[in-house]
Amino acid sequence: MDGDILIVEDNPDDEALVLRTLNKINVKNGIRVVRDGAEALEYLFRTGQYADRQSPRPIVVLLDIKLPKVDGLEVLRRVRADKRTKTLPVVILTSSDEQEDKVRGYDLGCNSYVRKPVKFDEFAEAVKSLGLYWLLLNEPPPETR
User: Fold this and answer.
1) What is the rounded CA–CA span in Å between residue 125 and residue 45?
2) Which numeric CATH code is attached to 8-137?
3) Which one, of 61, 79, 60, 33, lies nearest residue 139 by Cα?
4) Which of 9, 85, 135, 137 has the smallest C-beta neighbourhood within 10 Å, fewest atoms?
């Protein structure tokens, strides 16, 4: 399947674990990591430092919600508000267990809400399952331009 996985994560330890797990399951897709919500929006909408980006839109976005500059829920709101990205699969991958975040994430149109397990091996297994589902089983919507 063409397209990258976009990981929006500001925690270097969580980023490293996600990358290691995706590499372990031999993900052939490119993986792009951005570290704050503003950079995620630039990447998705091809503005700022990503204005010349030629790659297709991501297959899936793994989005943390507690991010610097622009929080993940605001990123999700903007993604769903734009016709070019409104059908883009977005999985909230967060340590937040706050009911309000979960409700708001679904209200804004996330495709899935996954709480990061605290234990290393459980977190790795969750990422593995996400990768396998979104890359092998899910049929993504066509890209809208």
Assistant:
1) 31
2) 3.40.50.2300
3) 60
4) 137
> Taking the mean position of all CA atoms in its chain, how far away is CA 138?
15
* pLDDT value of residue 44: 96
Instruction: Annotate the chain with three-state secondary structure.
Output: CCCCEEEECCCHHHHHHHHHHHHHCCCCCCEEEECCHHHHHHHHHCCHHHCCCCCCCCCEEEECCCCCCCCHHHHHHHHHHCCCCCCCCEEEEECCCCHHHHHHHHHCCCCEEEECCCCHHHHHHHHHHHHHHHHHHCCCCCCCC
Domain ranges of the chain: 8-137
Q: What is the CA radius of gyration of the chain?
A: 14
pTM of the model: 0.86
